[in-house]
Amino acid sequence: MSINNEEACAKKSRGRPKQFDRDQAVEQALELFWRHGYESTSLADLVDATGAKAPTLYAEFGNKEGLFRAAVERYLSRYVECYNRLLAQELPIADIVETYLRTSAEVFTDPENPAGCFMVCANAALSSSSNDLAEMLRNKHHAQETSLKICFDRKVKQGELLARTDTALLAKYIICLIEGMSAQAREGASREDLFGLLDTTMMVWPRLSQVGNKV
After folding, report:
1. Which stretches hold the DNA-binding feature (predicted)?
2. pLDDT above 60 for 11
3. CA gap 11, 8 in Å, rounded
């Protein structure tokens, strides 16, 4: 090949459009929605963050809501599936709860991510006009509460928790604690601050785990 032909091929290669990377776009959208919420994130913000043109995003996701839903699924696959695997392990229930809360505190204060829980932050930032998205987030969030209850129910059957333990209330309590930790992280609480809340919870766990029983 002559030098001129090599130069022509190089110029042609440099002029090729950059191929759209769907996974990368979802990752960048997740970070943006996590940090600013759904309502405050514009299509222009998403175009700027992903480097893709608006028609490309529309073709791949349909609209901003479609991209948001993809970001939600990415978050769930990365974090919630990990939590569910933990809940399914045959460990003492106190160890499961402590690891579950500690993992949450680490995620909420990871310097590589926006602070807090994406699901909690996203739901709190939705306006009343986003009912479909709010319902979707509530269902996803309630699913995690259900997973906790299933874990507690299993421990009741195994005799580790007392037979009359109110597992639904206990699961709701843990979710409320996680939501509080998320809010604290968004307001600037450090990982050590959240670990302090966790340590306090585990101090009272022996009594807390007996909720619903007359002891």
Report:
1. 42-61
2. no
3. 5
At 199, the amino acid letter reads D
pLDDT over 60 at 12, yes or no = no
Read off the DSSP letter of residue 78.
Answer: I
Tokens representing residue 154 in the block: 């299993």
Output the CA–CA distances (angstroms, integers) from residue 11 to 4, 6, 14, 19, 190, in the order listed.
11, 9, 5, 17, 51
Kindly report the pTM of this predicted structure. Answer: 0.83
Q: Closest Cα partner for 104 from 38, 153, 177?
A: 177
User: Does the pLDDT at position 1 exceed 60?
Assistant: no
Higher per-residue pLDDT: 140 or 201: 201
Q: How many of the other CB atoms lie within 10 Å of CB of 35?
A: 15
- Cβ-in-10-Å burial (0-12, 13-18, 19+) of 158 comes to exposed
